[in-house]
Amino acid sequence: MKSGLDVVIPRPLEHEWWHQLLRGDFLDVIFDCPHEMHEFTSSPTMSNLLKTLNENQRKILYYWAIRLYSPQRLAKCRGQTDRNIRKVYDMLITGLRNKLHIWLSPRYDEGLPLTSAQQMFLENYRAGVFNQKAALDEKSGE
Which residues of 36-61 are buried (b: 16+ CB within 10 A; e: fewer)? Predict the structure, then answer.
């Protein structure tokens, strides 16, 4: 018999997927790609927001936010500048925040229940926290 054919579970490699599989976290491994990242959330609204992204936006969001690639590493992989990657990411996040605000505002205004994270997001959005941060980032980049 050839070696390796009688092994049911191969020796774990030094990859997080193996640790997740051995813990039984199969869904995290199955949906670990830019096209399936909307499956990572249990919120139908967030899932639908992620589905509206184009392929370029999905890849940048996935590798930046989930795989934690630096803008420089992501730019090198995509053959772009890190400045372009940051610009696309900032526009993407701003768009998601705006859409989320549009969806949550009526619920907030009508006094419907929201999670503490949703309430905090709305309070920060309405206070202009995200706009102030963007202005500070632009100012520091000059």
Answer: ebbeeeeeeebeebbeebeeebbbbb
